[in-house]
Amino acid sequence: MSVSSSTKSVRKNTSRRKGLSINAQMIPTLAAVVIFIVMLIMGQALFGNYFKLGFVSNLFNDHAYLIILAVAMTFPILTGGIDLSVGAIVAITAIVGMKMLAVGLNPWLVMLTMILIGAAFGLLAGVLIEEFNMQPFIATLATQFLARGIASIISTDSLTMPKDNGFSWIGGRGLIIIDNPKISNDLNFNAGVLIALAVVIFGYFMLHKTRTGRTIYAIGGSRSSAELMGLPAKRTQYIIYLTSAVLASIASIVYTANIGSAKNTVGVGWELDAIASVVIGGTIITGGFGYVLGSVLGALVRSTLEPLTTDFGVPAEAVTIVVGLMILVFVVLQRAVSALNKQE
Amino acid sequence: MASERKAQSSNSVVKRLLSNNLTWSVVALIVLVIICTIFDHGFLRLEWNTNTGGLAGPLITVLQESARYLMIATGMTLVISTAGIDLSVGSVMAVAGAASMQLLVSGTNVWVAILLSLLIGLVVGCINGALISLLGLQPFITTLIMMLAGRGVAKVITSGQNTDASQIAGGAPLRWIANGFILGIPANFVIALIIVILVGLVARKTAMGMMIESVGINQEASRMTGIKPRNILFLVYAISGVLAAIAGLFATASVMRVDVVKTGQDMEMYAILAVVIGGTSLLGGKFSLSGSALGAVIIAMIRKTIITLGIDSAATPAFFAVVVILICVMQAPKIHNLSAELKRRRAVENSRKAVAA
Amino acid sequence: MTATEPIVVMKGITIEFPGVKALDGVDLRLFPGEVHALMGENGAGKSTMIKALTGVYKINAGSITVAGKPVTFSGTADAQQAGVATVYQEVNLCTNLSIGENVMLGHEIRGPFGIDWRKTHKEAQKHLSSMGLSDLDPRAPLSSISIAMQQLVAIARAMVIDAKVLILDEPTSSLDANEVQELFAIMRKVRDSGVAILFVSHFLDQIYEITDRLTILRNGQFIKEVMTKETPRAELIGMMIGKSAEELSQIGAKKSRRVSKEGEKPIVQVKGLGHKGKIQPTDEQIYAGEVVGFAGLLGSGRTELGRLLFGADKPETGEYELNGKKIAINDPHTALKNRIAYSTENRRDEGIIGDLTVRQNILIALQATRGMFRPIAKKEADAIVDKYMKELNVRPADPDKLIKNLSGGNQQKVLLARWLATNPELLILDEPTRGIDIGAKAEIQQAVLDLAQQGMGVVFISSELEEVVRLSDNITVLKDHKKIADIVNDETVSQETIVDTIARSGKEA
């Protein structure tokens, strides 16, 4: 026997396995694509406005924040972790931002402060996870309570932006691509969508084009292997939770600019929406496999759910049940796929 | 020699007391009571209220409020012991509360309403248990979904209203459970205590406790000893569901009104905190029900303290988050090994110097 | 080889774990262009020493110099920075990534727009080729190749970081003879390029074939550093176990031949028992009072067969007969209820329940067969615990100690007690003597023979052929997930017989 003979047999093996395993792991993502298309077609067929440019514009304009949150959540989930604090970080940064705008501070300074506050919570989560061995979901649950608690201490009122704030332009009409005579049917993307696009590109670049990104995948595969390979696992974990928290602050900026007001209860349950987006988009909840673009797709599915359920007359309070069921179905699907892979 | 040994043994008793979580919990409880008494000199007063037929006073309200924490903390202790988590307890409380109120309003017999509410809690717990044990899903994601969906279910049950059953005449027994007294002590506290003791007896007098711990310590090794980990996991989530439903009844019956947003809100955090205070590790394994029970009372006491000190109630979650973080940090191996690590560094430094010299 | 300066000098290394001194003042020198073997019994401290050099464990005393510079590693990244690379027995790569990515992780080639994947894969290809793995597609997932191949990929990775020292921790235990030769060819190439190699293996033949220098450890202490060529085998073994060869031959009890009775039925008889990817359909039978040895390399299917007999994995094919009656054994609970017990090879992960007491660990299996709500009466429990702790000489003799605080040998005895407490007819022991000291080893071997004498059927699985040959009535030889021979163990059978059987089957295939 020689080296070549053994590698040949390996190779044969490889091509067979490659096709199978990748296909199997793609199943959830493909399912998400199908679901999205079906939702749109169904909406169009039954209610007739889902292909309208105005609808598409609003879908993006109103949910740019969710796309950003989905990208944010992709990072921890890729390592098998989770960040339950994103919704609460949106709340505290929004409240602080509103308060600062109310006293007429420079909007850029306001944004910077919001981002720094988010970063502080991300750093705290990182410290708790890495230095004190807390499980990510416990650590970020604690920071969630902390952030929302502080937000509630600052204010429990609904705060509105003052006029001329140098802030709402983010949620304005933005880039008009197709200007239809009827304003409700323009194809326009506000600055929030462009920020979301930038975030998506950043997420893609970070995960696929940097060593830190590859380390994130390696940690998701096996933390101990990553460490034994000499990869900076600890530093990467800090980066992950910092990134998700900072992106949550950016989502907060985009959201408040679009809505024009904020309350301490804003963002309750958004971590679930973000998790739903990520999971629907094909990222495995136990880590190691997934991609940012999938999460964007997941966010779009989640966003389309809102008008669709409303059009169907589903009561608003039942939407959370639908979202919960959706996460459940996809997590079970992932579980089945990984069991299938293992058997192979 | 003999006296030395004696000193040593008494020393070790002190040491054991100091290293015992229960001791620290009791100390914490006493400190909280003292703080409250300083701020409110009447904090310790007890009087007989002839209207209710029970004792009255700040401490009694603490007991009354702690009943619900006792319930969820007990369930959570068993779940955490298996290295799991149940984030859905708050939502189950809301669902059970909503169901009982809605049933009462629709004219159902109060006992049937109570039974059905508990049944709903059991069903939710069983769904959690089935997903986790049969499908092998991660506990936190499963119960997180249930936390979200459960709140939705509660809202669907009441059609989004905060159903009020205080005017329903047949609701008296339920009202008594939450507000009545047995031998002068709040009935809900007595009931909760009896349930905790029952669970404790079953856990420790049969092999249930050992098997739960065993699964939490090493699931695969447990399976190899013939234990069926799936059954154990299913069991603990089912128990947690029922106990959360009881907590939900306590919480809604005290005002005979369910608030679909606020009932059971943040309860998962309180339950986790009570368990952690009680000395059960979040990584699973050995559990202490008495520790968790004490933890539950401490939580009620902390809430009372916050009110007594006049701190804005909005600060409560932030305050509890800080406590959780502090306790977890203190339990972290890094802190425990700090002195050993310092010693090690010194030794290496010395041997380095020795080599250099 | 050459009388150059050593590249690594470890002096007076001491490592303490809570309650145990794992290493006590151990020295080690590694020379460039040499293969150096770390020798010692299980538990001698070899892997602890390696982990000290790779920065996994922090040292309590001593010093490490690499290339003349004193170093303190606070993690594996530090060690790799200093040029120390390690390939572990359980390959530590990421199976969710591609082969090429695993080779290049942390060293991807970057262009102006982040990682340049084309160049990175090309570089990976180059390193793989230099290991003779040019046929491997760097874009294929790592999970698509065998463990043996993954090991070579791990070595390729070590070359990427330009290692000056390459540590190979038991790389050969899951390889067959040809794969070992492939590995050795690569090791020689790496050695000749001036890299110092630290090699750990249990196979003496391999040690004498590939290494230049030996460091011997025993019970966490440094015994001696010698040149391989100048050290006869007997002397080496003597240093490893602290006893001379003659003494050694007297330790183990030997199985007296079991006399089979006319018309006797086996306790367990299986036909075509198999599980895809684990073990091909296999026939096996075990009689009362018989010791059946399972022999084969790691990954041969010896453990897998044992697990199927116990229902630890659910069999996919085959028939199971217990005392002549057809039965389905699909999980451990059913097996134990039917008086079949299995002691795992993986004591830490599948055996002990660390935070429970010795007492609880002994009683738990019996309790599980009775059911959760029928607790064992205190009196009966005390009697069982007392009996087995005495019989098996468990130290310390305190049943309320946590089992995780016992030594490996005593943990193993407690586990044995656990299975004996269920009063099994068939006892399957997977590597019961691995990683325990020689005294405990002899005690456990004696216990096995006593149990068979009392009429229990025993399956004895071990990687140490010497043990298998000495204790078994019949030996089942396995290779590549398949049973290849049934050997009746009479006087003509020796370790060589089994080694030959395994080697011959390779050539035919």
Describe the structure.
Chain B: GO terms for molecular function: transmembrane transporter activity. Chain B: This is ABC transporter permease. Chain B: It holds the Pfam family BPD_transp_2. Chain B: It is a multi-pass membrane protein. The complex is a heterotrimer of chains A (344), B (357) and C (509). By secondary structure, chain A is mainly α. Chain A contains twelve helices and four strands, in the order H-H-H-H-H-E-E-E-H-H-H-H-E-H-H-H. Chain A has one domain: ABC transporter involved in vitamin B12 uptake, BtuC, CATH 1.10.3470. In chain A, helix 1 runs antiparallel to helix 12 and helix 3 (86-102) packs parallel to helix 5. The radius of gyration of chain A is 21 Å and the shape is globular. The two termini of chain A are 27 Å apart. With 509 residues, chain C is an alpha/beta fold. Helix content of chain C is 36%, strand content 24%. A six-stranded mixed β-sheet of chain C has the order 6-9-10-3-11-12, with helices on both faces. In chain C, strands 18-19-20-15-21-22 form a six-stranded mixed β-sheet, with helices on both faces. In chain C, strand 9, helix 6 and strand 10 (196-200) form a beta-alpha-beta unit. In chain C, helix 4 (117-130) crosses helix 5, helix 13 runs parallel beside helix 15 and helix 14 (378-391) crosses helix 15. Chain C is globular. The model of chain C has no long low-confidence stretch (mean pLDDT 86). The chains are: A mainly alpha (344), B mainly alpha (357), C alpha/beta (509).
